[in-house]
Amino acid sequence: MPFVVNMSSGNRGKEITKADLLAEEETQLLNFQRAVYTEFLEKVEKNKVTVIFQDIDDTNTLIRRAGGSMNRAGLTSLKAS
Questions:
Q1: What angle, 0 to 180 degrees and rounded to 10, lies between the N-to-C axes of helices 56-65 and 18-45?
Q2: What does the alpha-carbon distance between residue 18 and residue 38 come to, in Å, rounded to a whole number?
Q3: Is residue 12 domain-resident?
């Protein structure tokens, strides 16, 4: 379940680079993905949700193997098979 995260320099100072922002976006994207996954798992454990969720690391690995990747715009298109 990929998400899109956009970071801006805001009031971080002039020393922040575009590369710093991109790295922070990737970190926050994965953090947000893990937080949502954890929330769903807690609901499953309390029998409030009756579906099974695939582990996010498995999802991200499958996306990469299929030729996809995550960037500022979210999931890039996958290679046609």
A1: 130
A2: 30
A3: no
φ/ψ of 75, rounded to 5, equals -75, 125
Domain for residue 58, yes or no?
yes
DSSP letter for 64, please.
Answer: H
Work out the pLDDT band at 20, boundaries 50, 70, 90: confident
Given the structure tokens 């998400």, which residue do they identify? Answer: 3
Give residue 66's domain range: 18-75
Helices and strands in the chain, H and E counts: 2, 2
Predicted TM-score of the model (pTM): 0.54
pLDDT per residue as tens digits for the range 39-56: 888 888 888 777 777 888
For residue 41, the Cα-to-chain-centroid distance in whole angstroms is 17
